[in-house]
């Protein structure tokens, strides 16, 4: 029996069956999954008891891995997982639940804002693959908003207005929304703003998307208050319930999504003494979406 994909939402999300991700993919299987990502934007795989190495091996079928460097406030001696995996759990390097006031936990609360993974990098990510390694706590669903459908629902005047706009993204901006403002000089340099096109197009389907994220601090050439108000309006439009799917995690799930076509956010959960072990591998993008400022291009 081959791969089967069942659509879960009017606009996007495919539930995949007929495959064991612990086994090496055939070229045909890799092609089917890649085309499924282009079509559905998100693929859900249930009952996948993956090791870290098996998750890394599966991810490599779709491109070069993005290393988990420059995306958080972890110190070198605080790392729990290998560099190929982003640790989006609530655990410290010893497997203990982070204290409520831990700086790492405060920083990670930014994941509860609508965002696109790695849009704060000059070359943003292509795919993210998140696996659930512990029994999920109450709450903590991940919500996804499908940007092609949101773009297509815009009026023609707005589509024309945003077509050539360039935005500026930074982790400093998104974390500042929650009052996290204490950054070292090194972190400020690492998280310096980068530029991205506000409209992106899928080469396979031809559909356009609004490339939105909580990391956006301004629009190039606009006054900051007007730019932020405009981005807020676009984000409110794009996250209407008709464009949103909520994934309720269960142990062994692996969810794979296209950051070029989706925003996402984790929903709150009570994490005092509750383990939420979530491990993400990421496929790097193919290049910048916009020319960078001269000081970033050097």
How would you characterize this protein structure?
With 298 residues, the protein is of the alpha+beta class. It has one domain: Clavaminate synthase-like (Double-stranded beta-helix). The protein is built from nine helices and 15 strands. It has helices spanning 27-40, 52-59, 103-108, 147-152, 156-162, 171-176, 185-190, 224-238, 294-297, and strands at residues 4-7, 14-17, 42-45, 86-87, 125-132, 142-146, 166-169, 194-197, 199-201, 208-210, 216-219, 244-247, 254-258, 262-266, 278-284. It has a seven-stranded mixed sheet with strand order 1-2-3-13-5-15-4, covered by helices on one side. A three-stranded antiparallel sheet has the order 12-6-14. Strands 8-7-11 form a three-stranded antiparallel sheet. A hairpin with a 6-residue loop joins strand 1 and strand 2. The radius of gyration is 19 Å and the shape is globular. The termini are far apart. The model has no long low-confidence stretch (mean pLDDT 95).
Task: Name some characteristics of this structure.
298 residues; alpha+beta; Double-stranded beta-helix; seven-stranded mixed sheet; three-stranded antiparallel sheet
């Amino acid at each position: 029996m081959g791969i089967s994909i069942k659509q879960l939402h009017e606009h996007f999300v495919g539930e995949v069956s007929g495959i064991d991700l612990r086994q090496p993919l055939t070229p045909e299987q890799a092609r089917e999954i890649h085309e499924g990502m282009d079509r559905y934007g998100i693929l859900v795989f249930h009952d996948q008891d993956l090791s870290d190495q098996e998750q890394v091996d599966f991810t490599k079928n779709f491109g070069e891995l993005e290393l988990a460097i420059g995306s958080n406030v972890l110190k070198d001696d605080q790392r729990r997982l290998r560099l190929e995996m982003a640790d989006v759990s609530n655990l410290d390097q010893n497997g203990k639940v982070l204290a409520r006031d831990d700086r790492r936990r405060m920083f990670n609360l930014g994941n509860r804002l609508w965002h696109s993974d790695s849009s704060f990098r000059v070359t943003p990510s292509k795919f993210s693959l998140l696996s659930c390694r512990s029994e999920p706590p109450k709450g903590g669903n991940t919500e996804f908003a499908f940007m092609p459908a949101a773009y297509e629902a815009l009026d023609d005047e707005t589509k024309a207005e945003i077509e050539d706009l360039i935005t500026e993204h930074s982790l400093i901006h998104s974390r500042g929304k929650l009052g996290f403002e204490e950054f070292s000089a090194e972190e400020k340099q690492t998280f310096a703003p980068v530029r991205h096109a506000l409209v992106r197009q899928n080469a396979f389907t031809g559909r356009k998307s609004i490339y939105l994220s909580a990391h956006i601090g301004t629009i190039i050439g606009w006054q900051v208050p007007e730019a932020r108000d405009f981005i807020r309006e676009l984000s409110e439009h794009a996250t209407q319930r008709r464009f949103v799917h909520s994934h309720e995690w269960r142990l062994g799930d692996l969810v794979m999504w296209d950051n070029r076509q989706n925003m996402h956010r984790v929903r709150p959960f009570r994490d005092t003494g509750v383990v939420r072990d979530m491990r993400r591998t990421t496929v790097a993008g193919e290049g910048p979406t916009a020319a960078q400022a001269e000081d970033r291009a050097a």
